[in-house]
């Protein structure tokens, strides 16, 4: 009995001591949830009352300022080049004229790009090489709507002396000026800036090569006459198509030319391989997409002869640019439509036929789209290309 009482007393004493310990824990706060938060702060190695210190700002340099400016542009996406030479897109080649180096193009729609920094204006210095009506170039500053200007007027004023991107296009030549035989076109001597610096830019967007005739070139887009005053690449369907897709244009359009007809240059198959009668296309060029719009000028040839030449041309196009998706537009006039469909079916999925009969393209004459008709056609073509290639095909990596 005495042992039982001793044990009971010991248990009672332990219970009293336990209650006292818990009461002390509550009184100094060590037993509530705040202790968890304090532990969390200690884990970060930061005292509870320590304040955040802002990171020092990175020093801005002219190079970083230009890089940040270019990175903020949505379209086109550019790479800044190391030199003051513009980045050329399209069919350009080097040629000496009167002993001076020039960049020459025979194709409306050919373009070049540069960045100005600190300049109030720039001069695009061309050499006039044609006896026909004076050609036009167009300029677009910071992605604005292109403005046409005669190549004999070189000066372009900038909005201010800040950073500006510039796109220059060969925008309007006469049709028959000796492109194939004499390499007569638009000849650029150089670009100079006034009161600042120039840096070359090269677009990183996908490139679409357009093989066609006067409709692709932009002949009579502004009115009738087929001269430089009324011909305009920025009022032709390739321009509007590439704008809609976020791509850049490589224009291979030559007025009056076709699959069989030489026109102002030469036949389709020769346009694939040659820049002129004596100059071959650079084999390093690789488009991402190809569009063909030929057949309008081939009405003099029987369907059998036309189809035979078309097969040769398409075979050569596929041999030169394997695995590049090809879209063949039925001419807006529907000339040679059945023959084109028949030949293209032979190539299966390699070639997508683009039907145009329901497009209601408005014209300046009986064949050539006006600017509104070209915009309609370009946007409809862009939709057909996206249907086949997908929405993300033309996305540009940051």
How is the topology of this model organized?
Blueprint: H1 2-27, H2 34-43, H3 62-71, E1 78-80, E2 87-89, E3 92-97, E4 100-105, E5 111-117, E6 121-127, E7 136-141, E8 147-150, E9 155-157, E10 163-172, H4 179-182, E11 186-194, E12 197-203, E13 207-212, H5 214-217, H6 237-245, E14 248-253, H7 268-273, E15 274-276, E16 279-280, E17 289-293, H8 303-320, E18 326-329, H9 337-345, E19 351-354, H10 371-389
Parallel strand pairs: 13-14, 13-17, 17-18, 18-19
Antiparallel strand pairs: 1-12, 2-5, 3-4, 4-11, 5-10, 5-12, 6-9, 6-11, 7-8, 7-10, 15-16
Helix pairs in contact: 6-10, 8-9
Note down, in words, how this protein is organized.
It is a single chain. By secondary structure, the protein is of the alpha+beta class. Mean pLDDT is 90; it is low at 1-47. α8 packs across α9 (337-345). It is 29% helix and 25% strand.
Can you give the helix content as a percent range? 25-40%
Would you tell me the overall average pLDDT? Answer: 90
Strand content: 25-35%
What is the makeup of the main sheet? 7 strands, antiparallel
Segments where pLDDT lies below 50 for 5+ residues?
Answer: 1-47
Number of helices: 10
What's the assembly state of these chains?
single chain
Based on CA atoms alone, the radius of gyration comes out at 34 Å
- What is the terminal separation in angstroms? 89 Å
Which class do the helix and strand fractions yield?
alpha+beta
| Bulk shape | globular
Number of strands: 19
Order of helices and strands: HHHEEEEEEEEEEHEEEHHEHEEEHEHEH
